[in-house]
Amino acid sequence: MLKKYILTPGPTAISEDVLIEHGRPLIHHRSPEFGNIFAEVLEKLKKLYRTKNDVFVLTSSGTGAMEAAVANSFKKGDRVLVASSGKFGERFKEISEEFGLEVIHLDYEWGSAVNPEDIRERLEDDNKIRAVMVPFSETSTGVINDIESIGDIVKDYPAILIVDAITGLVTTDLETDKWHLDIVIGGSQKGLSAPTGIAFISVSDKAWKLIDQSDLPKYYFDLKAARKAMQKNPPQTPWTPGISIIVAMNRALDILFEEGMERAFERHRAMANASWAGAEALGLELLVAEPGSRGFSTTAIRVPESIDGKELVKIMRVKYGVTITGGQGKLAGKIIRIGHIGYVGMFDIIIAFSALEMVLSDLGFKFEVGAAVSAVQKAFMNNNYFNI
Amino acid sequence: MLKKYILTPGPTAISEDVLIEHGRPLIHHRSPEFGNIFAEVLEKLKKLYRTKNDVFVLTSSGTGAMEAAVANSFKKGDRVLVASSGKFGERFKEISEEFGLEVIHLDYEWGSAVNPEDIRERLEDDNKIRAVMVPFSETSTGVINDIESIGDIVKDYPAILIVDAITGLVTTDLETDKWHLDIVIGGSQKGLSAPTGIAFISVSDKAWKLIDQSDLPKYYFDLKAARKAMQKNPPQTPWTPGISIIVAMNRALDILFEEGMERAFERHRAMANASWAGAEALGLELLVAEPGSRGFSTTAIRVPESIDGKELVKIMRVKYGVTITGGQGKLAGKIIRIGHIGYVGMFDIIIAFSALEMVLSDLGFKFEVGAAVSAVQKAFMNNNYFNI
Q1: Residue B38, CB-side half-sphere exposure with 13 Å CA sphere
Q2: What is the nearest CA distance from A22 to chain B, expressed in angstroms?
Q3: Which fold would CATH assign to domain B16-257?
Q4: Cα of A213 to nearest chain B Cα, Å
Q5: Which residues of A touch B325 (CB under 8 A)?
Q6: Domain A260-386: CATH superfamily, name plus number
Q7: Which of A123, A297, B357, B358 could form a disulfide with A167 if both were Cys (CB 3.0 to 4.6 A apart)?
Q8: Which residues contact A173 (CB under 8 A, 6 or more apart)?
Q9: Quick check: pTM over 0.80?
């Protein structure tokens, strides 16, 4: 018997309450019973997004919603600006190129944030840019981008702003309408801690104007078909959706609003702060050097030169039962990523750093055993979030 | 308290054993634990498909897998032949047109089967046809097409054969390799009675040759990306999959093989035979006039002229708790469809016809109460399937 803990940037552990909803018998997706649940979920997603725009529910991973954003918004040959510093930002570039768009790529060092002023400069120079695509929380590095500033810039140009908020939603305040975000993408399996398989995507009036002119091929991800189905009473999806996941999401959204969104943001911030303190107490370097660019969903830590990050992750999972993730792409083996997103409390961070200490010790790294754990404890003890 | 029964052509009721698997805590999709389950599921799907081809798992509805077949197999402007007689066959046409293909449509009356010889004639006349697309079991009418004969024809031409077997798999024998079927599409929520949200697609060597030349845009449904991920050890998916659904499918596939595939086909045949007898005992007409064209997943029954089919379906659900489906597209209001697919036994058919009798009586239709139920009982009593 080895107790298992999932502390990855997603999928995230599902709470017992949500698992029970998820395990309920099937209800038919064309029944009023499901329609009423779906209507509730759609309203709750709008509250989460802080938007009056429609939020659509797709049965796919977040990547499917990224494809939906691209395939619905453009005409072949359209020019788009991708601003990114990690694997998921690059995915926007890959999808856009696959669909025949011309991509200008503002490519920052992995671990740095996007500079909003660079976006302004490009938009100022080039009125043919139809969209800016940028990740909010870049899951491969833990960076958070300043979407509020980017939104404030893009709103004055013809381009729309497409935001991958998959690990950003729930972990950090995001104001879809106030920040002028045209398309915002989220997923069921991240901050909401619902099962994997559902993505969401909000669409502004400015984006609909582009969608109306789009000539790229789409069928499964056709947002006009989704809109038509959603306008029925009760609302529907054009194709059979992941019914049980949506039912589970309804409970997960309730749990979020019972906690309160502001409290949820503060909780994620507290988890992140404690994790940074834990890493620093071990003398390890955080990948994101600039504190203001560190997101609250994921802490990326550079692995000491002498240690293979992949080996570290493997031992942590096999010997200690704690699943974290390593680096992706060019950071493979060089960093570890501790996810503190969704259904996560303070003792999960204690577990993560306790296990990390034990693995580092197994691998011969020299440090004072307990240093990280006590630093994490102190961070929590000094955090106002926990003063009730 | 109103006990609920789902007897639709899908999604189908999930068995308690599968629901329990589905409600388990999350395992990470990059963990060896999930990888091993996924490897098992892939092997079991090959057994279900009776194929040596790879079977890919997509997180989407069956429509997503239909799009995958189209977007991966063709070049812009390619000519394809769609042979169909219902809503789901027409979906092949819609997707193909959306992706810029030239579609020749062999369009049969809804309720009739496709004539394989018409396909031979078209292929003989036109060597530019790159594919034939046809549904196995047409869910909107209950028709089953003679895919064995169509496969025997198409194999001698350059065209590939793409089969929508979404409600055909598990309900009726399907031999992917022996029948020369190049691409076969299935879904989690039909004969397998697993939760909604996963589709499968098998790909033959002949189809891979087309896929290698394809220039249509695809990213989320890219089968080359799926193949690359599946070749890892243990196998993976390129994007985050519907993890819990795949875990549930693993149990559902075990349950199928414990029953035995031949027994499952015979069970579905027995359910269909009894349903036809029930309808006929009420003096109602089956939509599929030709007995040899009636599939075993769904019985479509013409509603008497005096009765609104939509009203019938609604009363059956609201007053009696039994969910069946009405007609789609041009058959809306004119037929009802009783699904007897997946986790269905003889008393489910008794329930369906008992409820149908009571609704028909509510709506003033004249018949001898008990006629359908007793006909269903007699059909079961005379069926060898139940002699154990």
Answers
A1: 30
A2: 6
A3: Aspartate Aminotransferase; domain 2 (3.40.640)
A4: 15
A5: 30
A6: Aspartate Aminotransferase, domain 1 (3.90.1150.10)
A7: A297
A8: A261, A262, A265
A9: yes
